[in-house]
Amino acid sequence: MSDQYDSSDEYEATDAPEATPEDALEAPSEDAPADAVATEVTPEADTEEPAEGTEETDAPEDIDADDESAAADEPEDDDPLEAFRRELWAKPGDWFVVHTYSGMEKRVKQNLENRIISLNMEDYIHEIVVPTEEVAEIKNGQRKMVTRTVLPGYVLVRMDLTDESWSAVRHTPSVTGFVGHSHQPVPLSMQEVEDMLAPAVVAVAEAEAAAAAGDKSGRGTATVKKPVEVADFDVSDSVMVVDGPFATLHATITEINAESQRVKALVEIFGRETPVELSFSQIQKV
Questions:
Q1: What pLDDT is stored for residue 216 in this prediction?
Q2: Type and span of the H or E element at 139
Q3: Please, which residues bridge with residue 128 across strands?
Q4: Torsion of CA 88, 179, 153, 278, to 10 degrees
Q5: By CB neighbour count within 10 A (0-12 exposed, 13-18 middle, 19+ buried), where does 154 fall?
Q6: Segment holding 204, helix H or strand E
Q7: Between residues 42 and 106, which one has the greater pLDDT?
């Protein structure tokens, strides 16, 4: 009897359905350790990790940003003249020429800058320029660099022309009028503006390059004597200007300084004769 009872128990045990993985998750055994339950649930936690990983896909954008900043740090065009041209053409307003009393150019610039503020004309009058140049002057046997006005009796003004802006400029002390029609001044072409302002830009760039080259070679303080040119000109000679802002214009020599290798001459600018200083290399006989 005991053998039959035992075999029936075995038969019933084999017919019992096996527990499925779903059953194990729904009803974990009380005897099962807590670690085992946690192990069964961890795959769900693992499935959430890629969501965090999606945020890390922004890394290439950071790399691109670094590339852009690196590109921005790269120097653009090394040519200062080209950089000057780009900046000049990007500026708003037109360039006009204003007559002043000779020798009062800087005073007019200061007076007009003050009037721009007091009359609230900042949106209409943008820039006032007195073109200057550095020249070597020899006095008492000593050579020194001095700053001189390139266009004596003239000031350049970049502005949007309106009745109010015209009045603000025209009634500035020491201003005698605009070049062109008195009430409808004619703006300069961009090429004319470039011809007047570019020489100063080039001169500064050349001076900086020469200073840098001198520092690198260790001879920055050394001076080089230029050969003295013999003056092949006479007072009252008619000459052609071949270099600088007055290139292609005719001039009449009024004074010659052989020591500094410069002449004073009258050049017709904007319809009137204007005294200017030129080096020997800037002129040639007609």
A1: 61
A2: strand 132-139
A3: 157
A4: 70
A5: buried
A6: helix 190-217
A7: 106
Residue 245: predicted pLDDT:
80
The architecture CATH gives domain 79-198: 2-Layer Sandwich (3.30)
In the three-class reduction of DSSP (H, G, I as helix; E, B as strand; rest coil), residue 98 is classed as strand
Cα separation, 76 vs 9, in Å, equals 93
225-286 adopts what CATH topology? SH3 type barrels. (2.30.30)
Check residue 22 and report its DSSP letter.
H
pLDDT tens across 224-255, in order? 444 445 567 888 889 999 988 888 889 999 98
The SS3 call for residue 154 is strand
Closest to 196 measured CA to CA, from 147, 129, 102, 281: 129
Query: What are the structural domain ranges in the chain?
Result: 18-74, 79-198, 225-286
Q: Is the pTM of this model over 0.70?
A: no
**Radius of gyration over every alpha carbon of the chain, rounded to an integer in angstroms:** 42
Mean pLDDT calculated for residue range 139-166: 88
The whole-angstrom distance between residue 226's C-alpha and the CA centroid of its chain comes to 35
